[in-house]
Design brief:
alpha/beta, Chemotaxis Receptor Methyltransferase Cher, domain 1, Rossmann fold, 2 domains, 3-stranded antiparallel sheet, 10 strands, about 45% helix, globular, binds S-adenosylmethionine
Length: about 270
């Protein structure tokens, strides 16, 4: 594998930061090299140096988009961390339904949804545990910066290894069908999720005020200023009594005092004070 020169590494870090806010610190040279070698070869570049030379001449084109996408970490799984989903089922959704009256409308947004396991987990939970809510009253929007993972998410096709991670076998059998060696989530569940591109540091798509916002395991890649700016936008996107979930290693503390942390059994969510 070709190694990356310091000036080229610095250029990639700056490009990725400007376009996605992802912070790549010194010491991440190996990560950059390993992720970009295939981008270089797929685009006919003989080395990372040649890739960077091409990026310098066309910093806003498809090649730079491929570089940004390659530098995102898309790790996810069905019902990841489990407890937030238990909280949705036992507390959050029952409380929202009680407040919303006889014809409840729920808007749920999974921001940074990667390949779809997270929003589909919410769709499956709603279908199985709240069948009384008419489908048309549920709106699940799932967004990500990475167009490749969004394509995967819209297809809803997962490998055996992916479905083995967190998805109960009963749900697999009820809501997926075989697609060669893989499994495809059935159309009725796929139709519940509207996948769209959204870069969290750019203008957000027009979404109705949100009841439940999942923004898990993405703020960890950003610096303090970016986190603060995104949290300020989250407050505007949420309904006044909306519920906000972050990843297990993330918090609003020392970033935005307008949120209060609400402990829900083995997990926590945030609400606007
Ligand atoms: C580790 S995954 C988290 C997936 C899912 N939320 C979960 O917790 O399982 C992080 C996701 O954030 C996305 N991401 C990174 N930077 C982003 C940005 N600036 N705007 C929107 N999404 C971004 C990546 O493409 C990736 O899919």
């Amino acid at each position: 594998m070709s190694t990356i020169a310091k000036a080229d590494f610095d250029y990639i870090c700056e490009l990725v930061y400007k376009r996605s806010a992802i912070v790549l610190e010194p010491g991440k040279e190996y990560l950059v090299q390993s992720r970009l070698v295939s981008v270089a070869s797929q685009n006919g570049c003989m080395s990372l140096a040649e890739l960077v030379t091409r990026l310098r001449t066309q910093p806003a084109g498809k090649l730079s988009q491929a570089v940004i996408e390659a530098m995102t970490t898309n790790e996810t799984s069905f019902f990841r961390d489990m407890y937030p989903f238990e909280a949705l089922k036992k507390t959050v959704i029952p409380e929202l339904l009680a407040k919303r009256g006889s014809d409840p409308q729920l808007t749920i947004w999974c921001a940074a949804a990667s390949a779809g396991q997270e929003p589909y987990s919410i769709a499956l939970l709603l279908r199985e545990s709240f069948p009384q809510i008419p489908k048309n009253n549920i709106r699940i929007i799932a967004t990500d910066i990475n167009t490749e993972v969004l394509t995967h998410a819209r297809e809803g096709i997962y490998s055996q290894i992916e479905v083995n991670r967190g998805l109960p076998i009963s749900m697999l059998l009820r809501h997926f069908e075989k697609s060669g060696a893989n499994w495809q989530i059935r159309e009725d569940i796929r139709q519940m999720v509207d996948f769209r591109e959204c870069n969290l540091i750019q203008v957000w798509p027009l979404i109705p005020p949100v009841d439940i916002l999942f923004m898990r395991n993405v703020l960890i890649y950003f610096d303090q200023e970016t986190k603060k700016a995104i949290l300020a936008k989250v407050r505007k996107a949420l309904k006044p009594d909306g519920v906000f979930f972050l990843g297990g290693a993330e918090t609003t503390m020392n970033l935005d005092d307008n949120f209060e942390r609400v402990q829900l059994e083995k997990t926590a969510c945030y609400r606007i004070r």
